[in-house]
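lol forgot to send this yesterday, sorry. struct tokens for the thing we talked abt
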């Protein structure tokens, strides 16, 4: 088999049999894929749908969906990579360990939009400026992802989520025709991106997330990594270019607001900062009263340090027992020293272990180290560390009054 085609100078050039077979196979494969999923009409459009943050923790960072609309083919398919099921076996164990499977779900946009609107979440549509071939490739990619054997994936909040999957799909469809710079408007670490959304909107959720994630979250996100947030993804799409034929055009052809959310009041009457400073003040007053009265009682310490130890064990569980990828190297372990539970239970007004003095010295050093990690929690850890220092001082001051045993 020997096929010829004309070059620019008019001379015929042979195509080898292997190359010809490859070309024919590619054409057949492309046709078969389109036949399997259907061919989009010239009136089809594909849009990025960006949903604003909701009130719940799981929705507090927004959401991204790709919408394929083709009136001539009767298509209304919104591709949602953020679906999980509470019916999954061992749901909470898998959720904590970071192994909960997420899946791609597909349904009419209006059904999902009604749900988001009921939650008072803004909905924005950005129509993608794609050629007919690029639309078909993107549609085929999404439909192939929706096959039962492909729709499940292991969700990673920073690295593989509902927004990053939009980028993967678009790159797969457009290849080198796409100029995607990512989000270049500002640089932040992953933790700082979380703070931007959670600190004012839900300070308790922000504190909990800061407590759970470790040093990898303090890495500066690259422009592409920053698109793990839907708003950043929308901005990145707005800065992207697409090559269609001999033209280079903006990736976004048009925009419209489907729904604009009403302003919401996110004010929390009691924030972590308020609560922990109030507790620090109460603990200080109680400690001063104990010292003045010469009272030796460790009930408060057993409650306080048992709770601190419990937090420490939870941090260790997230560090070594999960697959989130961002909960390792968590230096909150310095103040949340796991061995406080059970070591604090060994001391009482009637006895003290010989090693307890060395435990206090070692923990004092850990608290000193913990001050280098204050910015992680927007300074919320300051009153926590002060509270712990106050009680360590009280315990150390009371040791001389306790008989030594062991």
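and heres what i got for the seq, position by position
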């Amino acid at each position: 088999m020997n096929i010829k085609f004309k070059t620019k100078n008019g001379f015929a050039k042979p195509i080898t049999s292997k190359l010809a077979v490859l070309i024919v196979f590619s054409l057949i494969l492309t046709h078969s894929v389109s036949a399997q999923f259907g061919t989009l009409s010239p009136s089809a459009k594909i849009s990025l749908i960006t949903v604003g943050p909701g009130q719940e923790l799981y929705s507090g960072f927004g959401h991204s969906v790709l919408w394929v609309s083709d009136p001539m083919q009767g298509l209304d398919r919104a591709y949602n990579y953020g679906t999980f099921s509470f019916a999954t076996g061992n749901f909470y164990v898998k959720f904590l360990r970071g192994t909960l499977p997420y899946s791609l779900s597909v349904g009419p946009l209006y059904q999902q939009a009604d749900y988001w609107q009921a939650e008072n979440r803004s909905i924005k549509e950005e129509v993608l400026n794609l050629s007919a071939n690029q639309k078909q490739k993107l549609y085929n990619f999404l439909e192939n992802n929706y096959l039962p054997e492909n729709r499940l994936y292991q969700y990673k909040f920073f690295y593989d989520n509902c927004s990053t999957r939009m980028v993967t799909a678009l790159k797969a469809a457009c290849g080198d025709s796409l100029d995607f710079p990512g989000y270049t408007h500002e640089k932040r670490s992953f933790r700082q991106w979380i703070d931007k959304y959670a600190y004012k909107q839900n300070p308790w959720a922000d504190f909990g997330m800061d407590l759970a994630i470790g040093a990898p979250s303090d890495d500066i996100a690259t422009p592409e990594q920053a698109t793990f947030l839907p708003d950043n993804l929308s901005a990145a799409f707005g800065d992207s270019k697409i090559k269609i034929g001999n033209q280079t055009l903006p990736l976004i052809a048009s925009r419209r607001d489907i729904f604009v959310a009403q302003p919401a009041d996110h004010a929390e009457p009691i924030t972590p900062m308020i609560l922990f400073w109030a507790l620090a003040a109460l603990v200080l007053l109680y400690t001063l009263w104990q010292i003045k009265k010469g009272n030796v009682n460790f009930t408060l310490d057993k409650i306080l340090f048992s709770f601190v130890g419990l937090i420490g064990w939870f941090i260790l569980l997230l560090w070594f027992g999960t697959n989130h990828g961002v909960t390792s190297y968590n230096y909150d372990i310095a103040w949340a020293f796991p061995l406080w539970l059970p070591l604090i239970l060994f001391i009482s007004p009637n006895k003290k272990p010989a090693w307890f003095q060395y435990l206090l010295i070692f923990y004092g050093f850990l608290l000193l180290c913990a001050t280098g990690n204050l910015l992680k929690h927007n300074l919320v850890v300051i009153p926590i560390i002060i509270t712990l220092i106050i009680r360590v001082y009280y315990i150390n001051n009371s040791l001389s009054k306790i008989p030594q045993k062991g």
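DSSP finds 13 helices and twelve strands in the chain. anyway ping me if u want another try
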